[in-house]
Task: structure prediction
Amino acid sequence: MELLMELMPPTSLQKFRISRYISASFPDWLMSIGNYLPNVVLMEMFDLPNCNSFPPLAQLPPNLRVLTLGGMESLEEWNTTHSIGEDELMFRELEEVNIYDCPKLRIKPHLPRAASWSIKGSDNVLISWAESVSHNDAPSSTPVGVSTNLTVENEEVPLHQWRLLHHLPAISDLHIERCCDLTSSQEISWALGPLQSLRLESLVQSELPGWVGELSSLQQLVITHCRNLEELPDIMSQLKQLQTLAVVMCDSFRQLPLWLGELTSIEKLRIRLCPAITTLPNSIQQLTNLQELEILGCRKLEQWCEAEENKPKLAHIEQKRLYFGPRRAAIPASRR
Result:
């Protein structure tokens, strides 16, 4: 700590990173870093297993854009109280907050405003909030934590306990990776209502949760590396706003459903490295807005698309890209 006290950077510094710091606390200048380094736009603190303190929100640099906290196993609380007279639009330029491997961390009393949140292996950040926020009680004039993108990775707590979602009313993009329990609740489903883009990655479940089919505003759905997933649930036939559907590296995925033709807003369909899919449903002819079909690494499905009797079913699609493997180039639509 004594060495860090003597190493205060120049005030012109814009990127501040510290790692492998073994002390439990920081020197005074770092705990008031906004006063000493006001020009910092990127701040990364990682691999600090003994550290149990972090500068309060009000003491962070006023121009901060990206904040990363990682590997801080002893950190229990981040104080986000505004200073007296502090403008509630503080940190309106903050773009990213990344928190990983901070299992004890709780953010109190409110969520800072950010355009993008990424949370990995930090359960308390998800669950240490009020039980619920009714859509009738949600504040309209005073902004709570506003986010457009949220990534949650490697979490053990079930989705219905992710109370953080109640404080992200503007969330439009959600990426869930390696999370075991995606059971939801009425309150969580309401919080996910505005979602426009959903990416589900490396899930062990053989079925998608039903709440996916209730996302009436969803425009993009990417399902990748879900090796036990066999099919899409029927409730997904309600996704009338869906424009892009991608299924990638899902080894057990057997077929696209007949009701796919009901999703008439689909413009892009991508199937990659799903060897168990051998055909497309005849209802694909109903997807009159489908502009792009991409199939990669699905040998039998590629052969089905190339069969003369099936070509008329795909004739309305402007761009068809079929990749037969690394030694063969894609066959242009003009030659098929």
